[in-house]
Predict the structure.
Amino acid sequence: MTSSIIVVHGTVLSGHTHRVENLLGMLGVPYRLEPAPAAVRQIPVLQDGELVLADSNAILVYLARRYGAGTRWLPDEPVAAARVQRWLSIAAGEVKYGPAIARILTLWGGAGDLTAAHAIAAELLAFMDGHLRGRSFLAADHATIADLACYPYLAHAPEGRISLADFPAVRAWIARVEALPGFRPMPVTAIPEGRS
């Protein structure tokens, strides 16, 4: 471990920041959250001694390898590692362009296609619900960084006006992630009046 405390530059309302904070907490690694500098376009940014690292999925991989030795957050076995990587790609693709974009547009507005985000989210949720039937977690029989990467924007999909009512396996998975030791919830954000 480093002698200096890890700093996470981000915001509590960011699912990308939430991924990183949860893994740090679950690994028992002390850190502090600081607002991201205005010049930073991508959050979170992790500062660990001399290392400065952006991209939440890359940060999850780094933390699992650096501080999670002997844990199962990022398996070494090739097939299990590939399964985790697949879900990290889904988190950076369909999760981002579906539920995450829908949440951003619904809560804060901006340029983007809410209809397209809802369509991506609907396909993703149907796929995930089928995948999770008979499984407890996404990539293995235990939680991995894949679950932490996908969780925030799926759990908060209703903030983007995406219902989880028709996806019982996804809802059960969300509950399992929330029951993990050391889990910290992400604040719920109310949808502004008149925002569709």
Summary: Strands lie at 6-10, 31-35, 45-48, 51-54.
